[in-house]
Design brief:
Elements lengths: L2 E4 L4 E4 L18 E6 L1 H4 L3 E5 L7 E3 L19 E8 L8 E2 L1 H5 L10 E5 L10 H6 L2 E2 L1 H9 L4 E3 L12 H9 L4 E4 L13 E7 L7 E10 L5
Parallel strand pairs: 6-8, 7-9, 8-10, 10-11
Antiparallel strand pairs: 1-2, 2-13, 3-4, 5-11, 5-13, 6-12, 12-13
Length: 227
């Protein structure tokens, strides 16, 4: 289950995974390194240093990731949230590729400004393993085109890349990013998000100037009064 916090008037799910030393991510890129610079017992306070690629853990991609359009810091807050549309991939098994046929099942909810989430609970397998690297649901090019045609605002996946490691990964990114659709990768997506529950996603990337992407805290806010 995703981490939930009952606020009385609503609930919140944390859709993010933590960054830590040598945590899993892009297979052929140097992972993050976290080290202690000062110790509270010895120095009076704890101070850590994190060296990490910006596209690691829970993070977001901007069009500049492919050398076009806006950088991540140029997205105003008003464009960093939207109603969640959860695509149920829980029973599909590893390596599922989500195309137009799967997305037509949620087409009635694909309104402009929506945030589409490919949900499978695959985050729980997060490790340096072939299962995690290659098993998360990924978006097909035809699926990316279908979402772009419906004017969605964002697309979120549990894997380290929205198109996985397939040869179509670059094109999947290009289709989405060329339309200004931000991509959130490395998410924590559980069954809590599936219909009939209603959630609203808020994605807040680290404000790094002129960045192609950035680590982010992504949450879902719900209204328990709604079915």
């Amino acid at each position: 289950m995703a981490m939930a916090d009952d606020l009385g008037t609503g609930a919140m799910l944390d859709l993010s995974v933590p960054l830590y030393d040598n945590c899993p991510g892009i297979p052929d890129v140097e992972p993050p390194h976290l080290r202690l610079l000062s110790n509270a017992v010895r120095d009076g306070w704890n101070l850590e240093r994190l060296d990490t690629p910006l596209h690691w853990g829970t993070h977001m991609d901007a069009p500049y990731h492919q050398g076009m359009g806006r950088t991540m810091d140029e997205y105003p807050p008003v464009e960093l949230h939207g109603p969640a549309v959860a695509v149920d991939c829980f029973e599909r098994g590893p390596g599922v590729v989500v195309g137009e046929a799967e997305l037509r099942r949620v087409e009635a909810s694909l309104r402009p400004g929506a945030v589409v989430l490919l949900c499978a609970g695959w985050w729980a397998r997060r490790a340096w393993s072939p299962e995690w690297v290659d098993g998360a649901p990924r978006l097909a090019v035809e699926g990316a085109r279908f979402l772009a045609a419906h004017g969605v605002r964002g697309v979120g996946v549990e894997g380290f890349s929205v198109g996985g490691r397939g040869e179509d990964n670059y094109e999947v990114h290009r289709v989405l990013l060329s339309q200004g659709i931000w991509i959130a990768e490395g998410l924590r997506l559980d069954r809590d998000l599936l219909p009939p529950a209603r959630w609203h996603v808020l994605a807040l990337p680290l404000l790094v100037a002129r960045s192609s992407g950035a680590p982010a805290r992504v949450i879902a806010m719900g209204d328990p009064s709604q079915p």
